[in-house]
Amino acid sequence: MYSLLTDLVRQSAAGLRLLLVLTVLLGVGYPAAVWAVAQPLGDHAAGQPVRLDGEVVGSALLGQQFEGERWFHSRPSPNDHDTLASAPSNLGPSNEDLMATIAERRDTVAAAEGVDPHQVPADALTASGSGLDPHISPEYARLQADRVARVNGLTPERVARLIESATSGRSWGFLGAPGVNVLELNLAIAQERP
Description:
Blueprint: H1 2-38, E1 49-52, E2 55-59, H2 96-113, E3 135-136, H3 138-152, H4 156-166, E4 167-168, E5 179-181, H5 182-192
Antiparallel strand pairs: 1-2, 3-5, 4-5
């Protein structure tokens, strides 16, 4: 009995020491090492904040809602771009509510941009999986260009150049699709306004 109790205490002490060592290594050491390695990456390690006049106005990695005619609009978000509620709507393509929402979005975008509803690209109608996608397609940006140019007193050619400069290509040259970061494009529009 004494031997069994001694073994139990010895094994418990060894388990506790292992817990403490692993807690220090993995709970403190590893995060500190990752933080230290990431520091030379600058803003890439801090969520890629976007600054205007030294003040953080958003992140290049997270979409935001832009209201009004003077701005390019982001993709729809089922959670109003709330990072704490990041999730898809989980509605399938046969869901009547989703189909009604898409039809309503199509009509709204077509009316706002003065185009035929069939010209509205898919990313203007559907949310991304997280609901936080910061990019829109170049097609959706070009669809909004005339409105943004007119309201901001810019030429359509200048807005087209801003869209082109804000367009990023495919990752590694072949993954994904080209995209336009809406926050960066809207900041460029704000700086160009007369």
